[in-house]
Amino acid sequence: MIVSRLMQLTGKVLSVTGIAGLWIFPANVQAEWKVNLQRPITEIARVQYDLHMMIMAIITVIALIVFAVMFYSIIRFRKSKGAQPAKFTHSTKAEVLWTVIPTLILIGMAVPSTKALLLMEDTTESDMVVKVTGFQWGWHYDYMEENVSFYSMLATPQSQITGSETKGENYLLEVNNHLVLPLGKKVRFLLTAKDVIHAWWVPQLGGKKDAIPGFINEMWVRADETGIFRGQCAELCGKDHGYMPIVVEVVDDAQYQAWLEGRRNQG
C-alpha cells in the first residue's frame, strides 16, 4: 500500500504529460501560459532558452531512469517476496559506469554552455553604447555617443500601491522614461551603481548583470523585433527593491532617430 501511494505521488509530481508539454508546445505558447521562460527576442535569449531546454531534457531523462530503477528495486526485491541481500561489497564495473557516464553527460552540457558564455561576453563590434547606473531606487541611462541621458523610475500611481485604486495592467512594471533601443543594432551596456549592488534584468532580452558600485560590468543585446519589454532589478537592494522596474522599447531606426532628437530638445 505504501509503495503504491508513493508511486502515485511521484506520478503526479513528474507527470509525463506535463514534462512532454515543454517540448510539444512552442515557446510563445509556454510564455503565454507562464510555464516556461519568457519568449526570447534576441540571439542571446534564444541561446539561453535552447540551453535551458536541452538541460531540462537531460535531467528529466535522468530523473525518470533513476526513479524507474528505484521503484523497480523496491517492488521486485522487497522482503515480502523473500528477497535476500547481496553479499558483495563493491562492483568495479558499476563504479566505472557511474563515474564515466556522469562525466560524459557533464561534458555534453559544458560544451554548449561554454559557447553560450563566450557569446554573452562578446561585446565587440557594437553599434552603440549605453551606460546603466543603478541607484536606490531607479535607473539612470547615458547614451554615450548621443549626448542623451535621463532617469527612469517607477510610474505606478501611489494610489494603486496603497490599494485605493484598482491595480493597472502593468502594476509595478511601468516607468516614466523608457529605455529606447533601435531594432537590429548591437547595443553594448556598461553597468555600475551609485550606492549598493543592483542587477539589470530584462528576461526577453536575455540580459542579467550586476551593477556594482565602483565597478563596470558589460553585456550586450541585439533585439530582433519591435515592442515593449519589461524587467526588474534582480538584486535585493533595500526597502524599495520591488519598485525598480525596467522598460525597454525597441523601435525601428526612423523612430529611434526621432526619439533621440526629441530627447536632445528636452535638454
Provide structural commentary.
- The protein has 267 residues and is α+β, with helices and mostly antiparallel strands.
- The longest helix has 34 residues, at 43-76.
- Helix content is 41%, strand content 22%.
- It contains 7 helices and 10 strands.
- The chain folds into 2 domains: 2-121, Helix Hairpins, CATH 1.10.287.90; 128-265, Cupredoxins -  blue copper proteins (Immunoglobulin-like, Sandwich).
- A hairpin with a 2-residue loop joins β1 and β2.
- It is elongated, with a radius of gyration of 25 Å.
- The protein has a 5-stranded mixed β-sheet.
- The chain starts with a helix and ends with a helix.
Summarize the structure.
The chain is α+β, with helices and mostly antiparallel strands and 267 residues long. Helix content is 41%, strand content 22%. The protein has helices at 2-13, 16-24, 27-33, 43-76, 92-121, 158-162, 253-265; strands at residues 128-135, 138-143, 148-152, 179-182, 187-193, 198-202, 207-211, 217-221, 227-233, 245-251.
Shape: elongated
- Low-confidence parts, pLDDT < 50 over ≥5 residues? 9-19
The spatial strand order of the largest sheet comes to 3-2-1-5-8
What's the CATH H-level superfamily name of the largest domain? Cupredoxins -  blue copper proteins
Number of strands: 10
**Rg, please?**
25 Å
Quaternary structure annotation: single chain
Beta fraction: 15-25%
Instruction: Provide the helix percentage.
Output: 40-55%
How are the SSEs ordered, and which strands pair?
Elements (H helix, E strand, L loop, with lengths): L1 H12 L2 H9 L2 H7 L9 H34 L15 H30 L6 E8 L2 E6 L4 E5 L5 H5 L16 E4 L4 E7 L4 E5 L4 E5 L5 E5 L5 E7 L11 E7 L1 H13 L2
Helix pairs in contact: 4-5
